[in-house]
User: Fold these one by one.
Assistant:
Number 1:
Amino acid sequence: MQNDIGAFASPPCTAAVVFDSGDDADAAMAVAVAALRHAGMRVGGLLQVFGPATGPGRREMNLLVLASGDWIRLDEPLGHEAQGCTLDGDALARAGQALREAVQARPDLLVVSRFGKQEALGGGMRAEITEALLSGIPVLVAVRAGLREEWESFLGAPSPVLPTCADTIAAWARAQAGVGEAVSRRYRA
C-alpha cells in the first residue's frame, strides 16, 4: 500500500511503541504520559484501556481522551457469543474527532492509541494519524509487531521503535520536546 505521508525533507517526528502479545504497551504509555504531564509537558491524544472480558478472547476496548478525561468505548457490546468484528463505527468517528481536536490544540506530544488493523487496511483513524504526523507535533503511536511493516509503509520510511518501557518512552518524548538527552536515534531498529 502506498504511503499517505508523502516525501519529506526529513521524516516526521514520530516513534512507534512496538508490542507483541504479552507486552502491555497501553500501561507503559499511560505511565509515561502521567510522568510527562507531572513534569509539565502538554500531552494530548488518546490512550487505549482494556476493560472486562466481553467474550472468549475479547475485552472491552476503551479510549481515554487525554484533553478532557472523557471515555469512548470502541467495541459494541454484542454479548459473549459475538463472532464477528465488534468495532463501533460511530465510536471510531468520535475518536477520530477527538484526535483532530488534539492536533489543533498543539500539545508538546500527541499520543495515538493504535495504528491497528483498520489503519493498515486504509481505514480507521488513518486520515487523523496522517494529519497528526504532518502537523510537526511529536507523535507516539502503539503498533503491534505484526503490523510494523504496514506502519513503515504508511510512513514511507522507518521510524524509531521504542520498547514497552515507560522510562524509555518518556525519555524519547522529552528529547523531542527539547528536554533531556536525545535518545530517539538509539532506538531506531
Number 2:
Amino acid sequence: MRLPILIAPLLASSLAAADLKLGIIGLDTSHVTAFTEVLNNPSNRDHVPGARVVAGFRGGSPDVESSHTRIDKFTETLRTKHGIEIVDSIPALLAKVDAVLLESVDGRKHLEQARQVLAARKRIFIDKPLASTYADAKEIARLARQHDTPWFSSSSLRYGSQAEELRGLKVLGAYTWGPASLEPHHQLDLSWYGIHAVELLYTLMGTGCESVTRTSTEGADVVVGRWKDGRIGVVRGERQSRGEYGAVVYAPKEIRSAGQARGAAYAKLLAEVVKFFQTGVPPVPNQETLEIFAFMDAAQRSKEAGGGVMRLQ
C-alpha cells in the first residue's frame, strides 16, 4: 500500500525537473534566434535553464519590410543551428509544446495568433508589442480570462541596466528616452518601437496615469503623462539620434540618471518568462501592460488632435 505514496513525489519531482517544451510563433525577428540560443545552449554564459524551444511556425508579414526581408534567414538559423522543427500551422505547433513565445514582429498579427494559443489553454509570452491597437490588446486580455489562461508581455528594457540602476528610488517623476521609428501599418505608431521607452517609464513610475499630451514632429515625439497622484512622467522618442536608451528619476533628495544599456537584457527577461511558464504568475501585472497601451492610445489621439490633452480610456 505504500508504493503509490513513494512513487507520487518521485513523479512530481521528475516533471518539475523536466524542461518545458516551447514553441515560437513568428520567425521574423532577431529575438527568435537570440532567445533560442539562451534557452537551448547550456554552454552559453547567459543560459537560462528550465525550458527549450522545440518547434517554430514561420508566420510573417509580406507588407512589413523588416518581416519579409529577414524571415528566411532567421528560420534557417533555427533549423540548421539549433535543430528546431519548423511546422506549417499554429495548431501543429500547439500539439508539440507546453507553452508559446509569440514573437511575430508585426503587432497586427498578435490577436489572431494569440486567440489560437489561448483557446488551446497554453501559457503565452507575447513579445513587444502586445498588439498594434488598444482594442486588440483588450481583446487578448478578454480571451485569456475566457479561457482561464495566463499571459505575459514585456519589453526587455524593463530588465535592462537603466531600470536596475534606478530601481528602489522613491519616484516623484521620471523622464525616459529611446528610439521611436515608425511603421506605417501600425495604428498606434508608438507601439512599433517607442514602446520600449514607454515601458521603461512605467517600470519606474508604475500605473496610475490619467491623461497625456503629445508633441510630434518628423524627428521626435514627446509625450507628457500626468499621474493621478500629481506626478509627471515624460517619454521622448527619437528618429534621428543613434538610438540610445536612458532615464532620469526625480527622487526626494536626488536626481539620478542611467544611460545607454550595457547589452540586451534577454537573459533576465527569459528567466522571468520561464518562471512565468512554470508558475502561471506574470511578473508584470496584465493591468499594467494594458495601461501602457491605454497610454499610447491616448498619445495617438493627442497627436491627431494637434497636441490636446487626452484622458486614458
